[in-house]
Amino acid sequence: MSMVSIGEFSRLSRLSPKALRLYDELGLLVPARVDAETGYRWYAGTQLDQARLVASLRRAGVPLARIRAILALDPASAAEEVRAYWAGAEAEHAAQRVLVGRLVDRLQGRKSAMYEVAVRDIPERRLLSVVGRAGQDELEPMTRELFVHRLRRGGVPRVEGIAGAPFTIYHGEVSGDSDGPVEWCWPVPGDRTAEIAAEFPDLTLRTEAAHQEAFVRQETPGRWAGTAQVEVAVGALFAWASEQGRPPSGGVRCVLVPDPAQGGNGPYVEFALSLR
Predict the structure, then answer these.
(1) Same fold, 3-71 and 118-275
(2) pTM of the entire structure?
(3) Does domain 118-275 have CATH number 3.30.70.1790?
(4) With contact defined as beta carbons under 8 Å apart, do 43 and 21 qualify?
(5) Greater model confidence, 70 or 89
(6) Half-sphere exposure at residue 81, Cβ-oriented, CA atoms within 13 angstroms
(7) 127 exposed, middle or buried (CB, 10 Å; 0-12, 13-18, 19+)?
(8) Class of the 3-71 domain?
């Protein structure tokens, strides 16, 4: 097996030595040999294809965590994952275009067409909830762990209708730089609240008063395309609330509404504001 130095491998792969050291630390591209005394890295010529794939994916803007997942797949599955990433990236770019257009309209004193905002009544209900910190990349796995693995698979019953949809409340900004706080809420049947709450002593049982909420829904089940699309939707909610003179009560809500066409799976994701 022919070996090349990190400098030569950098030239052949078009990855800087700094990038190669980072990818080694992350387990994306581990050297074939590391000198025990000097720590100098040596690469096999057979690693060039993988290195060039990593370089191409990074130039396409694929996040490192997603690259790690792609490298673990067979070629056909990896191709599908790359295609899915790019479809999401294009949707996010389209949403950014809309967001920028609306920002320009606002700065120039013009009103923009927004997402359609609707209003619904939410009755008084009992909630199992927990407040925690979650950054942008942590929110989805933490939500899945609580809602799917612990509560749904744990047999906690669902309340019928929209009032029974689990939701999160953003009490603070959730982004790559900010971690909330976030409150996860699961409505529980009124006749079994004490019994269910006893099974989850780490969760808080609280009562939410009846209220109205304004909401916007995405067109198809699943996640929103990206942060720009979410920003446009949430901006539409706040603009509507201001125009209608309906002050929000609390933070933005992300409501996971089961899709009846998929047997209750594949939720629609709605963003909502509780109204005073």
Answers:
(1) no
(2) 0.61
(3) no
(4) no
(5) 70
(6) 17
(7) buried
(8) mainly alpha
